[in-house]
Input
Amino acid sequence: MNNALEVCGLNKSYDTFSLKDVSFKIPTGYIMGFIGPNGAGKTTTIKSILNMINHQSGKVSLFGLDSKDYAGQINEQIGIVMDSPFYVEDWTAADVEAAVSPFYSRWDGGKYVNLLKRFAIDRKKKIKELSRGMKVKLMIAVALSHEARLLILDEPTSGLDPVARDELCDMLSDFVTDENRSVLFSTHITLDLEKIADYITFILDGKIVYTGTKDALLEKYVLVKGGLSEISAEQKKLIIGLREHSTGFDGMTETASIGRLPKSLVFEPITLEEIIICMNKGVSLYE
Amino acid sequence: MNKALSFVRLDYITVKPYLTLKNLFIFLAVAVIMVINSGSSASAIGILMVYAALYVSYPFAVGEKNGIDALYTTLSIKRNTVVLGRYLFALTVDVCSGLLAYVFSFVIMLMLRKEFNAGEAFLVTLIMLLVFSVVQAIQLPIYFKLGYAKAKFIAYLPFFCLPLATVAATSLLRNVLSVNQITVLLEWLVANTFIMVLLGIALWLAIVIISFLMSLKYYNKREL
Amino acid sequence: MKIIVSNRSGAPIYEQIKAQVKEAIFSGELQEDDLLPSIRQLAKELKISVITTTRAYGDLEEEGFVVNVQGKGCYVLPQNKEMARENALRKIELGLADAITAAKAGGITKEEVADMLNVLYKEGDYE
Output
């Protein structure tokens, strides 16, 4: 199976933050969720993939082609949705089409008009007059109107209400019913990904902590709770993101470690959000 | 080349929301007042071209405010194409504004029932075109290197320096050369207009090309 | 065919899908050569990952319930009478165990339970 996107050993340093050896792959036909706390490096990674910033080392290939050498052909096939549009705010939806369509050889004007109608976006309204949800829908309309095979979304749902987020998830699921298309969806609202993501890449502090299927990640860890007296100091080391309070403790542990912990503890299935929180706490404990 | 032309169109769409009739009317009003005062069309042409020349900086101003460089990257427009397209846009704006200024001044003179000197107007338009073009040639690399926000103050200096420089140059000449020598020089220049025109064009071309190469270098280095 | 999945039921989602497809086959709702919804279509409708539906269908194929035809989809295979019978027996056993527990708790005798069985069976015949 071909990979829609392959990132190998991406490195990029700023003064206060750096991406270290970031690597992951998205097989064609699947949705990958890109998660991590704010400031973990999601946007920096995505901008490096899109050549918006220069990475110091590493290789990015899209559809099997190197992203720098074939930038011209590749960008045609990528649809991009960022958390705020990079269009002139005084443009209307019609202006956006006039601006971008000459640069896409497979622009489908009819489809664009239909999508605008479906999203109830007034062609004559200026972008700055649109609500946040409408702005995101406009970017999606553009992304879907040039036969993109890979959709890259960077935090598109922050600021959207649950109804709009649900609609977005539906659209993405619909997008990959064609197995030649793929999605990279970066967000810190993991509720959306719990439903539709096939793969998850988890970045923390510029480093990839996990990349693989969502099911495997959710099976790898488990929530654990118990009384303070039930657990020894040795056993506490097995708990990631340990939180102790007067009535007990909670945290996360690897499912494989259950055997080494007392049976009296409560073990529960974990959510993506809890994994992020516990991992993040775990990191700060070791610093 | 196709992409550069599409880029010129993109620049036009970028500034289109700001090409308001209100702005145009203000400049037209000023032009009419200046013609009434001076009696010739030259000042009208001048002021209208200033209006147009200002627009060359708009793609930078508007673009930077809206993060449009990210759009250029997603449309896979190479940096060199951006620079070439921007210079072509400036050229287009200059030529169009020259034509419009010429026509407007004709209309204004007609409405004010003054005599319209076609030859003089044409010469003024041409000279203005060259002058503004040179000013832009100085401004564009500054914009490309620093971005609009940081550059706008510096970039407008040429506009003010040029009249100052002209005054300084003329007074210098007057002090250095005697009236006779200046007359001889002017006569020689008028007699050899052909050579003068060629020299002028060559100089202009050189300035524009150097400016273009500098812009290419600066913009390619910039981290956005 | 009805397929509903629940995040809270405790069973992994792919197991839930498998169980419901098998149920539909055993009950006759799904016949031989019927086409199941495509892997991606099902994922989209249930709002779950494509990998989960792929796994469910993959297991069903391995266990001999369906066959995946490249380019067309998953077709129901002719049913193994043995398995249908075993499934039915298992369900009866579960149902009877429940009934017996309830009977003992309520002080109902075995004969009364057997009578009820006969009556209900006959009623079933008139449906």
Notes: Chain A has two domains: 3-216, 218-286. Chain A is about 30% helix and 30% strand. The longest helix of chain A spans residues 272-286. Chain A has a mean pLDDT of 89.
